[in-house]
Amino acid sequence: MLKLVIATGNIGKVEEIEEKLKEYPLIIKSLQDYPQIPEIKESGKTFSENSVLKATMVSNYTNLPALADDSGLEIDYLGGKPGLYSSRWGKNDRERIERVLKELEGVPELQRRARFVCVMSLVIPGNRVFTTQGVCSGKIAFSPQGKSGFGYDPIFIPDGYNLTFSQIGKKIKNKISHRAIALDKIIPQIIAYYHLENQ
């Protein structure tokens, strides 16, 4: 079976990707399985640069195909912030959410438009690189709602729903999220490599 390393230590991300890939004959690993890999500094200036950087480094260390994503929340009223720095807007999810809500204090619903962006990269040994992008548009809630998910999920309401990512449940989120869209686009490359290796 083909081993695929998810270049993250974020359990939530790993679970979302595993759910999408469960029907395929893959052994999924994550950075938690490779503690010897040093911390990856996201020095890129775009989601794409960071995504490729992470996947390349992990693939080089493990000599296995590596899948990485870089994603963030872009809020129109804040000029696209937090964007690339979404995971660095506080020490933890609660702090980051509180900061967004404070920045949007008093801002009416129509001006709370936002989108989640995800760029996913697959790097196969030999420096074959594939990248895809997924976008999920919506708006920012006035307060956190729901207990599931991670990151900014409790305050993001996707278009077409009256519930946050934390409330709609994993099944729906794994169909409509930015990460799900990017992953759906890159799965054919993963499967093509698997079939190639098993010929």
Task: Explain what the structure shows.
This protein has 199 residues and is of the alpha/beta class. The protein has one domain: Alpha-Beta Complex (Maf protein). Helix content is 35%, strand content 24%. The protein has 6 helices and 6 strands, in the order βαβαβαβββααα. Strands 2-1-3-4-5-6 form a 6-stranded mixed β-sheet. α1 (11-21) links the parallel β1 and β2. α1 (11-21) packs across α6 (178-197) and α5 crosses α6 (178-197).
Record field, number of beta strands: 6
- The SSE order reads EHEHEHEEEHHH
**Helical run tally:** 6
Largest sheet: 6 strands, mixed
Unreliable spans are: none
Radius of gyration: 17 Å
The assigned structural class equals alpha/beta
Lateral strand order in the biggest sheet? 2-1-3-4-5-6
| CATH topology title | Maf protein
β-strand percent reads: 15-25%
Q: State the CATH class.
A: Alpha Beta
The separation of the N and C termini measures: 12 Å
